[in-house]
Amino acid sequence: MERRFEGQTVIVTGGSGGMGSSHVRGYHAEGANVVIAGRDEDAGRDLAAQLGQRALSVRLDVTSEDDWVALVREVEDEFGSITVLVNNAGIQNPAAPIENTELRTWEHTFGVNVTGQFLGIRAVVPSMRRSGGGTIVNIASTMAHVGTAFYAPYTASKWAVRGLTKTAALELGRDNIRVNSIHPGVVSTPLINEPTAAGQPAIADVYSPDPFAIPRLAEPSDITRLLLFITSQDASFATGSEFVLDGGLLLGPALPPESDVAA
């Protein structure tokens, strides 16, 4: 069976987290050299050890220019030119109205969710150019399409990712570098299943997917399968595109099953 990413080198930020580790495993199974980039060094090393050959764990604070420079240097020394960057690292702010949101919360959320992706694109582009092209995917959110009360920093940061993605796609298209974004709905990860701040419930405790057309939370593997398609040659004509994967969340409440309507 042909493996779509044989011999390619893929960086996944937040690579040991809920979605990130799924993406890393998906690329590795498809033959790629995988780079698990993130701040949790122990989890990154454990995942790399599980995968064995073709897996490298590198510490990365996505908001640090120096860390990005060091990462690219280490990856090129180990595997050669970079083929794919998945800007997956992201954080959620504790729920609060705007008037009660601290500036440092706003700045930290933007630092990770937007500046981290900007620095990642800037850092890997020279390597991709040298190898004749590549592909970048920025992980955004369905919150990039609506307003969401109590989550102004996160929502605004994900709207910003849309603009960053489209601008990068325009700038890099003639270098054979495609840039797209994925907009997941509610995915069953620690970001959803664990409280974002002490004393607050986890989002999963107060959120129900029952109104969705597909009434369940997404699994990380759902996002991984779409990601593998977007970064493969099967999607070679897609750039600057937004791929929403939300089970129908943005569509609004779905009709109940036909049997219930008839009753």
Tell me the layout of helices and strands.
Elements: E1 9-13, H1 18-29, E2 33-38, H2 41-51, E3 55-59, H3 65-79, E4 84-87, H4 103-130, E5 134-139, H5 152-172, E6 177-184, H6 190-193, H7 203-206, H8 220-230, E7 242-245, H9 258-262
Written overview of the protein:
This protein is α/β, with parallel strands linked by helices and 263 residues long. It has a single domain (9-247), classed as NAD(P)-binding Rossmann-like Domain (Rossmann fold, 3-Layer(aba) Sandwich). The chain contains nine helices and seven strands. The protein has helices at 18-29, 41-51, 65-79, 103-130, 152-172, 190-193, 203-206, 220-230, 258-262, and strands at residues 9-13, 33-38, 55-59, 84-87, 134-139, 177-184, 242-245. Strands 3-2-1-4-5-6-7 form a seven-stranded parallel β-sheet, with helices on both faces. 43% of the residues are buried. The model has no long low-confidence stretch (mean pLDDT 94).
In short:
This protein is an alpha/beta fold. The chain has helices at 18-29, 41-51, 65-79, 103-130, 152-172, 190-193, 203-206, 220-230, 258-262, and strands spanning 9-13, 33-38, 55-59, 84-87, 134-139, 177-184, 242-245.
List keywords for this structure.
263 residues; alpha/beta; Rossmann fold; 7-stranded parallel sheet; 9 helices; 7 strands; globular
**According to CATH, what is the class?**
Alpha Beta
- Strand content of the residues, in percent? 5-15%
Summarize the biggest pleated sheet: 7 strands, parallel
Q: Structural class, judged by helices and strands?
A: alpha/beta
Side-by-side strand order of the widest sheet: 3-2-1-4-5-6-7
CATH architecture assignment: 3-Layer(aba) Sandwich
Tally of strands: 7
Q: Give the termini distance in whole angstroms.
A: 49 Å
Number of helical segments with 4 or more residues: 9
Rounded average pLDDT: 94
Number of domains: 1
- At the fourth level of CATH, the homologous superfamily is NAD(P)-binding Rossmann-like Domain
Contiguous runs where pLDDT drops below 50 for at least 5 residues: none
Helix content: 40-55%
| Fold-level CATH name | Rossmann fold
